[in-house]
Amino acid sequence: MAKIENKITIVENILRANDQIAQQNRSRLDSANLFSMNFMASPGAGKTSLIEATIGNLKDKYKIAVIDGDVASSIDADRAADAGAQAVQVNTGGECHLDAVMINNALNQLELVETDLLIVENVGNLICPSGFQLGTHKNVLIASIPEGDDKPYKYPQIYQNIEALVVNKIDLMPYVDFNMDYFLKGVSILNPGLIHFQLSCRTKEGIQEWLDWVESNL
Ligand code: MG
Ligand code: ZN
């Protein structure tokens, strides 16, 4: 029994330390006068594609930076840099989420004062990224049609800890049994009034509404 209590205390301490550093990150981002988002999603939902589309459409007006979290490789950071952003790769070395310390270190490598928009691409995973605040202004979940319409019911925590939701790959609706009403009903139970966007990074349908919302925060 005592062992179990110790374990719980350690986990709570780790999360409290993370939240303190997340607050420091937020202060740095606020004082640099930029808008920041933490993109969370399962692997393959289209985080990097939405980052590319956002950079492609807004880079002429705003300076954009990307912090890319992956277990290994720099494929996604390379894509962000190719699209026209300042990009920093964070390899987590096996960890399945980003934490506030990793972001704190990555921020040291960016010219924050000159940056207008910072996008953090979290590791593809619907579970633990939502438990680690990074200090960014908005947590954004990218869901996608092929994942299925039951995800809010199966992964409620991440749907509760977001400030915006993107439903990507709506061009695949004719080919997949995805009941949008059932999906959105689950979302509204968990997070009433959550702003959400239905779009396709491939066909660009719905992208403008997303870009307008991003710009409204800049
Ligand atoms: Mg990616
Ligand atoms: Zn994790």
Detailed description of the structure:
There is one protein chain. The chain has eight helices and seven strands. With 218 residues, the protein is α/β, with parallel strands linked by helices. It has a single domain, classed as 3-Layer(aba) Sandwich (Rossmann fold), CATH 3.40.50.300. Strands 3-2-4-1-5-6-7 form a seven-stranded parallel beta sheet, with helices on both faces. Helix 3 links the parallel strand 2 (64-70) and strand 3. The mean pLDDT is 94. Bound molecules: magnesium ion and zinc ion. Residues 47-48, 76, 121 line the site of magnesium ion. Zinc ion is lined by residues 95-97, 128.
By CATH, the topology is Rossmann fold
Instruction: Supply the CATH class.
Output: Alpha Beta
Number of helices: 8
The figure for the number of domains is 1
Separation, N- and C-terminal Cα atoms: 50 Å
Instruction: Give the low-confidence spans.
Output: none
Beta-strand content estimate: 15-25%
User: Pairing-aware structural class of the strands and helices?
Assistant: alpha/beta
Q: What ions, cofactors and ligands are bound? A: magnesium ion, zinc ion
CATH superfamily: P-loop containing nucleotide triphosphate hydrolases
Q: Could you give the order of strands across the largest sheet? A: 3-2-4-1-5-6-7
> What is the β-strand count?
7
Instruction: Tell the overall outline.
Output: globular
Give the topology string: H per helix, E per strand: HEHEHEHEEHHEHEH
Architecture in CATH? 3-Layer(aba) Sandwich
As a whole number of angstroms, the C-alpha radius of gyration is 17 Å
- Largest β sheet strand count, sense and barrel closure: 7 strands, parallel
Give the proportion of residues in helices: 40-55%
Oligomer: single chain
Global mean pLDDT:
94
